[in-house]
Amino acid sequence: MKKPDYIFEYRMEVRDYECDLQGIVNNANYQHYTEHTRHMFLHRLGMSFAELHDRGTDAVVAEMNMRFKKPLRSDDEFVSRLAFAREGLRYVFYQDIFRLPDDVMAFSSRVDIVCLVGGRLGRCPELEEKIESFTRGEL
User: Fold this and answer.
1) Across the strands, what pairs with 96?
2) 96-125 burial string, b = 16+ CB within 10 Å, else e?
3) Fewest 10 Å CB contacts: which of 21, 58, 71, 94?
């Protein structure tokens, strides 16, 4: 399947403590960057994972595929871009990170999210409706 177009982006900066002995961002921090981007995307939709949880829906990572392209270093600025697709009960987030100002891809990932509704695998119509409204420019 072809990756859809980016629908959201969020700018960040590498902090010193995120780097390892080689002076590059430790690989685990890329997961933090992508998770924070998803959280900010939900906030942009007027939602949060905490609110979904309080209403009985838990959106959880089912699978994540990561590709490390170019290392980020301390004080690098970058933009985390997000594209979205649905595959059955999976909410697929394609998330790529680009170093700024040269816009070089540093990291690429596919994050599959599933929703547990009342403890059972299910759909989250509220999330789907908000994303559809957002992509139509209504939010």
Assistant:
1) 81, 108
2) bbbbeeeeeebbbbbbbbbbebeeeeeebe
3) 21
**Residues 36/10, Cβ–Cβ less than 8 Å:** yes
Strand partners, 97: 80, 107
Strands 77-87 and 8-13: antiparallel
Task: Name every residue whose Cβ is closer than 8 Å to that of residue 88 and which is 6 or more positions away in sequence.
Answer: none
The DSSP result for 56-72, as a single string, is TEEEEEEEEEEEE-S--
Phi, psi of 34, rounded to the nearest 5 degrees: -70, -40
- Which residue type is seen at 97? I
What is the rounded CA–CA span in Å between residue 81 and residue 78?
A: 10
3-state secondary structure of 124: coil
| pLDDT score for 137 | 87
User: Which token pair is 124?
Assistant: 């989250």
Could you tell me the mean pLDDT of each successive run of 10 residues in the chain, 139 residues long? Answer: 83 97 96 97 93 93 97 97 95 97 97 95 92 87
